[in-house]
Amino acid sequence: MKGLGAPIEAPRWVTHLLVPAINLALALIMSGLLILALGEDPFQAISILAYGAFGYPEAIGYTLYYTTNFIFTGLAVAMAFHCYLFNIGGEGQAYLGGLGAGLIALAIGHWPAPIVIIIAIMAAALFGGIWGFIPGWLQAKRGSHIVITTIMFNFIAAILMTYLMVEILIEPGQQAAESRDFESGAFLPRIHDILALISIDAGHSALNLSFVLAILCSVGFWFFVWRTRWGYEIRTVGQNESAGIYGGILPSRAIIVAMCISGALAGLVGVNEILGVHHRLLLEFTAGYGFVGIAVALMGRNHPFGIFFAALLFGALYQGGNDLAFDMPSIRREMVVVIQGLVILFSGALENMFRPRIEALFVRRAQAATAAE
Length: 373
Prior knowledge:
The chain is an all-alpha fold. The protein has helices spanning 12-37, 42-54, 57-82, 90-108, 113-142, 146-168, 191-196, 210-227, 229-239, 241-246, 251-267, 269-278, 289-299, 304-327, 333-349, 351-372. α5 (113-142) crosses α6 (146-168).
């Protein structure tokens, strides 16, 4: 009989795979019941949703386009989570990131495209990072609660953008609060145009090279958090601030660095939307991506691998939901939002409802196996 070593924990696959899968299944079951209550076949609805998300090249392109935004915001929330910070300011940081990218595109869009795009990406990260730095500094130096300040900065960002678009950046002679169109040098290439060069038909969608940028950011996130001293300090402060202080780590520095990087990642949403899709500055392009990123980070367990698949799920819900609302008139767009909300509810707010019981079941099995040896 093995004795008194370290306490037995549930296998990692239970926490990181099984529990999220069960939460997702419960959300889909609840969604199916609601669809059934509307007099529609839930299995047909799921089939339409899946086909609308992955059934043809254009659908896949749009699913990955939405996925790109959710990767950026999911990584942004996860970076703050690793420092035990709850960044709810992804919307405002994405807004400022789009402003930074758009200002560069308006100013130097006639320059060679690679230079414009690189500088615009850097500007998006810089503007988003600054919008994350301020709440981080207030938390680290003044004790202001990060949740309150990041929420407030969402509103400040929206007001700032409204003022700039209405009073300064609006194209003369029009009523819509939009800037002039960018020069072609500021357009981020779209994936279907690139694939067409090698005779691959990928339909026509909004998917652009920012998807590749999101994958690179995911790899960089993993390396930074788990393979660098800065990442170690952020994780240490998040898990045990007292231990970090004892080890010579400055919690204020870790908090500020985490929020700067978090804001920079959220700011890259502006690259996808402003440079990749709209090709001009406009209002309300963030469309709630910053808030959904919270659920993406929770579902993905704050790991870039999990965040990718959680982002893909929400991308599929966004794209497939459009087809579902079109093919089943009784299921309106609001119902699709309810389905998304149920996924967020079970994956986020109720994430710990079943997790302790499921993990305890596997712990008891492991203890029984150990006792039998």
